[in-house]
Known about the structure:
Blueprint: E1 3-9, H1 16-29, E2 31-37, H2 50-64, E3 69-71, H3 74-77, H4 85-95, E4 100-106, H5 107-110, H6 119-125, E5 127-131, H7 140-146, E6 149-150, H8 161-165, H9 174-182, H10 187-216, H11 222-231, H12 240-250, H13 262-275, H14 280-287, H15 298-308, H16 318-326, H17 328-345, H18 353-362
Helix pairs in contact: 2-9, 4-6, 10-11, 10-15, 10-16, 11-14, 11-15, 12-13, 13-14, 14-15, 15-17, 16-17
Amino acid sequence: MENIILFGGAFDPVHNGHLRMANAASFLLNADIVFVPSKSPRWKNPTATIDHRLKMLALAIRQNGISGTTISDFEIKSESEVNYTIDTIRYFVKKYPLKRFFLLIGADQVNQFAQWREPEEIVKLAKVVYIPRPDIKIDEKIVKRFSIEQLPYNHTGEVSSTKIRNLQSLDMPSSVLDYIEKNHLYYIERILNIVGKERYAHCLSVAHLARSIAYKNERPEYHKAYVAGLLHDLGKGYDTEQTIAIMKRQFKDYVNLPAFAYHQFIGSYLAQKEFGIKDEEILDAISFHATGKPHMSPLGKIIYSADKIDPLRGFNSRPLIKKCYKNYYLGFLMVLSANRDYLLANGKDIKNSLTDACMQLYLGKGKEIESR
């Protein structure tokens, strides 16, 4: 008898955790996977439209290459206001009476299973299985009552659709990430609302370049580089009055810096306030991407460089980008030196405390004071 796994959900958006679950379940149960995206899930209110969610799911499956996988539009075409799993299972059992069905659910749904519509009927028609998550404690009474089976796989990761939407995780196929960017979904829409379309183009370009520099240098923080690059100019979306008020309240030690430096601190503030970023390395890289500072982290150097040599700035930055790709540290020194020459040639003051200290440390008299 052929086995089929029904895997439903909002997929808002689909992420690698979903795909790892599907792959593992398919292997362990020797079954084909049918993804069943829900138009109107009972427990959730999706952020993206079903059209967007369906397209992202199709892209992810195509990129991931899961064999024997299909997407069902049964719930999408349903005229019901709310989709119930029991109705979906009845449809498939009636359509394929000679097949054996499994229902794959998330660990977070196990404890709620008794509240589903007709749970006793569900388990009569399909074997319910789940994959554990380290942050979810399973109610064993529910498991025993409905004979729910735990599959022996524990590598789904810490990712969730909520974390993806809030830029807390990037653990998704690159095709889904590209789709989110191009269609201004989730966190992209929020960034656009703060910085505007023109500034967003620069932020996205810096994010891609920073991630590429980190990746080509085999740096483990290439995901952080994308996030820091994407959020680094959030502060430029605030007007002067708002900026000064926040500086006086949150960054008193830096109020005496030139006004051009303020946006980097406001960007760090907004990354925390609007996107919940708590990673100190990301926040530090944003906080000093314009001025630089002494003893910058590898991520800080990468973000500084990516911002200064963004191809959208309109000069030939390819030699500097190539150098950063080859060695991010030596590339950073070249970018810093080039930026110093540019500022001095254009009569800009580089004698603020942060920029001066940064250039003295890294450029000095041609002597490298800090090791990579």
